[in-house]
Specification:
By secondary structure, the chain is mainly α. It has a domain of 64 residues. The mean pLDDT is 79.
């Protein structure tokens, strides 16, 4: 009986020791390093369509720098933003905001 009790105690101790065993160090995968993310800055604030144009431009420029969009898509969106900015500067706030909404929808940006 004593041998059985000793065996059970030794078995329990070995199980408990396995839980506390040191893990081998984690090795970072080798290969090309991911690009360092740019410092996130808050998009510019501003009233009306001018602020909306500036915020969308800021988001799209950041997406280009992070590699989320390629240069040709960025150029297309930038042209759409320029059209909205032109409408905004000529006092057509509703048209400018509509152009921005259409561009965001077309390229998968939230409304």
């Amino acid at each position: 009986m004593r041998a059985r009790l000793f065996f059970l105690a030794a078995f329990a101790a070995s199980i408990g020791a396995g839980c506390n065993a040191a893990r081998p160090p984690q090795v970072a995968p080798s290969g090309p390093a991911a690009p360092a993310p740019m410092a996130q800055t808050l998009p510019p604030d501003g009233p009306g369509c001018a602020g909306a144009v500036a915020r969308y431009r800021s988001v799209v420029d950041n997406d280009l720098s992070m590699g989320h969009v390629n240069q040709s898509v960025h150029a297309q969106i930038s042209n759409e933003i320029a059209e909205a900015a032109s409408a905004c500067s000529s006092g057509q706030d509703g048209r400018a905001l509509s152009l921005l909404r259409a561009s965001k929808s077309r390229h998968g940006y939230p409304g």
